[in-house]
Amino acid sequence: MNQDELKKAAAFAALEEIRAIMPGAVIGVGTGSTVNHFIDALAASRLPLQGAVPSSEASGRRLAAHGIPLVSLDEIGAGFLPFYVDGADEIDPSFNMIKGGGGALTREKIIAATARRFICICDASKKVATLGRFPLPVEVIPMARVQVGHEIARFTGSIPCWREGFVTDNGNHILDIAGLAIDDPRALESELNQIAGVVTNGLFARRGADVLLLATASGIERSERQG
Ligand code: 5RP
Q: Mean pLDDT throughout 145-156?
């Protein structure tokens, strides 16, 4: 199986995971090529959903093209989404993740925070012992980009790279920090968020995944976060 076929297998496994969903439920749907397979499978499944909250304009367009109603978080109110299904750029053994390769990290984090269960769907290449081989994205307010870049360099020792030409769905910029070996993801997530001008960063440690569906050459490995 090639990487795309593995992504597709993980997406189909997520469908099985949520199959017992209550009629009329709303789920959170992430962003990326793995999630695109999930959206296509969801549309074909005819699960009795009321709709989905997408983490990006691109996922929203794909859901809508399939006739799946889009729901805003305002409509959810104080309630919780039963599931949030999304991919990751890296995931470690404690289910901490780096996300945001597609630049949707802020909306992903917002929706993940409102979900009872975060189901992470990945191909096996995303499983790592220590986060940081994949450059860590940081969404920044455009006027603060240079200052935030200097601050990150001082703090981490790594000069971040501006994802030039890319603008997030929120109208912001992305800095990618390469060359990290992240021993304490929770601490780094919090510390980066303290820099003025940072909207959020792509570490999902304070709210990591609950379930991992990892597609490997020998099948789907399902595991749940311990503790
Ligand atoms: C987008 C993300 C994606 O989940 C992550 O980049 C994985 O993408 P793909 O499924 O295409 O490998 O965080 O912001």
A: 97
